[in-house]
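Re: duplicated header lines in exported structure tokens

Our pipeline writes sequence and tokens for each protein into one text file. With two proteins the header for the second block appears twice in some exports. Here is an export where it did not happen, for reference. First protein block:
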Amino acid sequence: MVEIKIEQPSGSQVVIEGVIPADQFAQEEKGVLEALNRETKLDGFRPGHIPEAVLRREVGEDKILNQMAERALQAEYPKILAKHKIDAVGYPQITITKIARGEDLGFKIVTDVIPAITLSDWQTAVKKVGEAKPVEAVTDEEVDKVVGELLASRAKEGEAKPELTDETAKDFGEFTTATELKEQIRKNLTGEKERRARDAWRLSLMEAVLAETPFETPKTLVEAEIDKMLAELRDNIERMGMKFEDYLSHLKKSEQDLRAAWQADAEKRVKVGLVMNELARAADLKPDDEQVRKEAEHLKSHYPDVDEKRIEAYVAHGLVMEKVWEQLEQTAKKV
């Protein structure tokens, strides 16, 4: 029977120390020798047909024992997490503290975990923020600026930009008059202002919740978020036809500089995600199955190579997160 001791030095990390009995550890040797026999290339022998004595001499005792330890811990680690309800994230740091033939296997595992999040009186905090501020109306100057940019985009090199007329308005879509084009631009600008205002309002609501919900953020998740931010930036730069390395040279920054600069932002993103998941769990929010199916089918038509289950999970999560935002909005509007 595996003996373990669990300590939690911080809210986002767990240390597991333990011992796997010698007889259980020894059971991994057969599988390790079979795998090494298949993988080892040795003159005069076909893979998988190397005599055991020759194989042991070729690979060495240390390699055999280390692979036995790796297999034993790969089998035992998930059981430890399940038995002790440890919500681990990322790759654990594993250290072998004792290893010898015929002896118990000693180990130490350090892993980040999802922190316990206690939602306090977040409703009161959200109500103090209140409703979103009214959006300022789009001005004629703002509309004219967009019109000017559209017309300039149609001007040939060396020519003056054309005037807006009923005829030139037809170049920008199914518009029959210049007035119709301006009305659509005003509508688009109004929608954009409303989206930005709603995003800012939602962020202020979430910041109010975060202020009432202190917890330690797992470093693994922060680093993963920075990896995601870097990947998105790289993709955007390469889509513009630039090399990412050239972009960094232009900024006179390294990738490590960006990682350091984004640390606080990444940590905040992780905190928001964890709190939103907890709000969804506490309110038992679930997505509508039919809506998941329809939106997943739509995405599948655009991304046919992506696994269907992954698409459904992505859609379901997005719908649940939208329900969380709506819950925050409704709470803020209550007197």
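Second protein block, exported in the same file:
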Amino acid sequence: MSEEIPSVYDRLVWPEAEIGHLLATGQRRRELRAYLGDAEYDRLQPQAVAAMQARRDPDRVVFVLPGIMGSQLSLPRERPEPDNLLWLDPADFQCGHLMLLAWSSRPVRPCGPVLYSYLPLKFALEAAGYTVRCFDYDWRRDIAELGVEFSRRIAIEPARHIDVVGHSMGGLVARAALRTEAGQRVKHLVTLGTPHGGSYAPLQALRGVYPLVRRLAQLDPGHSAEALARDVFATFHSLYQMLPRDDGANLIDARNWPSLGPQPNATLLDRVLMLDLGGADARIGAIAGYGFETPVHVARVEDDFYYRYGPAGDGTVPTARATLTGTEAWYCKVPHNELPRDPQVQAAVLQLLEGGRPALAGAPPTLIDHPRSVSDTDLRKLFEQKIDWSALDADARRHFLDSLNEAPRPVC
């Protein structure tokens, strides 16, 4: 695949430091507006200016760890051609290349964080005087192995004061690193929507019913969402490790899964209990979202999974599962993907890194719950129609990409 002609998305992969400089100086404005969209460009540009003008302390470093699917992944090409971006390149998906993300011997490598999700947080930290380093990683891999890899990066960091902010799965990778010798150097870990107690979104991805998986399958003319779940997502070690372990459905036992639909990889499922991230740590503070319709429970009924949806979550992770027993937690009405981008969350992160207490609720509110139950069969009826990416105009393409980041509607 590395011999193929590079797509426009391959050529627009910039390191976040370069993007910050271009935004702050107004250079390559036309390309950046096409890449980010006008609204996002207008939002980020003044933030980039504030970050560039701030005096950053090289001895106060914050590592930002993206969540699952929050790091771009690519296949190397011979220079001077750019690497073949696999995640996230719609042109590749149109050609069926999402299948290349299946775990294999291919030399897939991370190539920076997804800018939409993490540039706002990076700029906020830099404007406050921190030196920020984004630790991108191959989110398909085993969380414990990624933690060891991150600990090696911590070990060679010359700064005296090291903090970490982990979004979603990134918080679990950071917790794995905290348990190593190098991890003792970390002063604070702030987790944003991290599924400390697991989440049902990975289960839905493995079953081919998660909305993002189904939207991606719309771009692939030759593969259904179920095929992608079976042949691609079922090979990701990390998805199994983020399943709830304490659920009555006992998802760690493959015999408890419905016989119809995509099945788990039994070997990867058996390895889940090998991951031990430890318990409470005084250095950890969790920020959890609430108020968005979220799968909060699952049950197997007549050979199908039924998910109970309710407002006690951020749309992806149930609120109670985004906290860690024995550590402090704070709560906000912000959806999962927006947590790193939200100004009130960014302010809370800065307060926690300084050893203070954020201006967020210290307990989740009592919510009016009108639960509904949705089955795998119901969810498979969503996003069935295929989309011809090559036939879309620029506005339609931007609309589709924006829909991948679309926040769920809050539950009133």
